[in-house]
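Dear support,

We are seeing what looks like truncated structure output for some complexes. This example has two components. We would appreciate it if you could run it in full and send us the complete token output so we can diff it against ours.
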Amino acid sequence: MTADVNPLERRLVWTCGGVALAATAHLGHAPLWIIAFLYASLSVRVLGAQRGWGLPSRWTLVAIVLLVTAAILVSYRTLNGLQAGTALLVAMAALKVQESRTARDHAVLVFIGYFLCLASLLYEASVLRLVHALVTVWLLTAALLGAQRAPDAVLPVSVSRLSGRILALGLPLTLILFVFVPRLEGHFWALPNSTDEAKTGISEEMTPGAIAHLAQSDEPAFRVRFDGQPPPRELRYWRALVLEDFDGRTWRRPALPLGGPPPQVIGSGSEYHYVVSLEPTQQSWLPVLDHLLAWHDVTAQRLRDDTLLNMDNVSATPARITSLTNFSATSAPSAQVSPETLGRTEAARALRLPNAVAPRARQLAAMLSADAPDGHVYIDRVLARFRAEPFTYTLDPPLLGKDPVDEFLFDTRAGFCEHYASAFTVLMRAAGLPARVVIGFQGGDPNIYGGYLLVRQSHAHAWSEVWFAQEGWVRVDPTAAIAPERIRSGLDGALPLGARRGNGLLNLPWVLKAREAYDAVRAGWNQAVVGFSSAQQASVLDHLGWTGSPVLGLAVGLSVGFAIAGVALYALQNLRRRGSNTDRVTRAWARICARLAAVGWPRDLAEGALDYSQRVGRSLPGEAVALAALADTYMRLRYGGNATAAQIAAFSAAARRYRPWAARSALRRR
Amino acid sequence: MSAPDAPHATALRTRLRTAAARRVQSWSKRRTGVDVSPVTLTRRRVYIVPTGLGFTYAAMLFAMLLAGLNYGNNLALILTFVLTATGWVAMHECHRNLLGLRIVTGAIRPPFAGQPAEFSYQLTDADGRSRYDLTLTASGAAGATVSVAAHGAVAVTVQLPTRVRGHARIDRLKVESRFPLGFCRAWSWLHVEQDCIVYPHPSRASVPPAGAADSEGDGPSRPQRGDDDWNGLRDYQAGDPVRRIAWKAYARSGALLVKELDRDAAVPLLFDWDTVDGTGTEDRISRLTRLVVDAAARGDAYGLRLPGASLALGRSATHRHQCLALLALFRAPPGGAA
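Here is the complete output from our reference environment:
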């Protein structure tokens, strides 16, 4: 590296490193080509800075800008929204670095890096991502610091340390802002449609046989905290969606009128009160236990008045759930609900079966229901048939062709909950019983550390409901007939040993415990941080004894908080630091001088250490020896070069111990 | 506004801006009065404003806040708040970078017209923290940027360009810093009112001391002798040429002595306004300046006679300064020379 290289070029490594780290957060979802483009651009620029290559001409850059923008447009068909916006940011960084010469260009790159961090958190609000973002911010701020230093400044301190110091000093204010900046109870603008980002195990329609492998995710779907004991596992049916329209292949959700009354419960099954903390689904259902009696919103976040219970005993929100959502509910899973009357249109919909669909299934239904006295007997016969025939439960079923119901029932006989629920419902309809498919979650793993029930994406399940005039809709789970372990002990229990998910290592008891503890931490983090909303702010104000309007309370909190943060900053700034070696030696000597000054022997401004110690020593022979030794050590360490840390520590300690006794007694005599 | 008005408008804007700047500066001067060295930068005299980059940063934070609130995403908000706090801390650090700094005005080296006048200052930290990237500027002078280590001191020289002889003045010194992140600019004005004499520009031609008013009249043809022809030692005075120091004597006795040459005593030079050649006041001043400078460099004793003022023979640095200052500030009597 030559001496005449612009110092900013040498500091470019920091800026490029920060941007590169910021982009790693987007490796999962941004198109790979654009990330590769960024990394290529950064490497070329850093290498070029070291080898003294020139920068591309303006026109080359304009051409590349047009090309990349067009490529992004082709990929996303828009430049709007989070995904396209992120891609655009990455492209901007890649191009900006090719024309960055001044400190201001560096600042622009750093700001792009900050935005990349923000975008990564908008994708997924997880602890890991936050940690990643904070580390990136630290590096980017160090880069900004380096770029802003005077061009000819040798950097006497590491910019990373200064950057860390600035971030640390900002913590009190960060906390104050987090607690007191008012949260929104809606949106400023509609969130871009992003159903393709949904990570839930549930989709709004169901096509058994269309996928050959059911991807299983252990990610949490929601967590439930019960007042008292949770219901037994076989009663943990969390309903999310009801699918009634069937076209022979796919079950769809009908356009239901929202706002039906909750069902009347007769008899008293045990009631359960619980609070659900739902991870964002990008969909609009709320998971509730069967026979919901009442619910209310805990966080007052998005659900307030616009969450509705529709007539199928399904809770739905008009807006999609895009952030952690908390609500409480009361259900009676084993209670009887009063018979509703099924309207003519509803009955027709629950019986509809396209004409050409499943001829063999219709024959089977006719055969089984021929001499059945009532629907319950027919249901038992169907389930008995499932058990008797060689049906198997598998997560890797064969693909199904033209008539999936018949093929499944009579040919492949292997599938998971969707196949069974679909086939069972078709058999019910074929026999003239109104039936429908319900999808949701079944089960939930208790977490002993957090005292809640964790329902994972892999708990997603599908079952059927059949309507009886005296009992209303009755839940029937055909999967339970094939694989009762699926219901009693979860998915793994239902699979043959070889097909169980995860390897043996993940199922070791202590690993399971650790994972449970980790999830408890995540749940706590969700409650305290991710789910912090205007309702929690209100309760904070309440704890602080504020009785006025919350808006005013937050304003007062912010102002007082700012003052407190200012005082904290002042205190933290003036904390004694270890400092550099020179600092420590100088400070130790200053301590000695201060001790002497306190007893009437101040050092003159222009007086060197040697002169000073000799002057004091001449007048106070009692101090002469000790002081001469200290002054000698000081000068050796300060100006002699290559002082070891141990020597400096010893000198510091000696300075701390030093008490000018002779000077003090001389003072007393005077 | 139509295009032809544009230069006019620019001029107006410049005038308004300088007028406003002058107002602010005189207000700040009224606050602190004329400063006497040493000056310690207190809260009262450190000003701070956001820079363009700072405003950009604020706009970025606002956009982040809107996004975080709209998505209801608390982690995005945490990031926004961390960055907000960073900006806020940076502002305080920027202010603190100047606070408590001690500035001592130092020596001023008078220049010859055309050379920059050098005003030196010492920046000292007494609070035990390093100060970074402090830029010192004075009106019209080239700035210098330095950093000061904790408990350390750094000498800075501000160079003020000069054109003509007379005075060079620094009314106001500005210490400025954008450290650490460039979001804010903190500065302090020191109303130091420093004055420096600007010597006249010595004429290029080496003028023979034609006007040397030695009574014997053999000035130019005076036999030149080498440095070895010395007739004694005397005490060193400031301004004596280094090559005439008697190093051997110094090695023996430890006292700084200089060799006294024969001609030192023998040939006094008196440079006279009336006898020096020249085409005008400035030309004569230039020539006289050259004579003084050369004589001083040789170590000769010399005197100066101008209309209305004269200086007796002398050899010291002070004498040289007095002569040059007299020339620097000389005003030709009306109708006098030329």
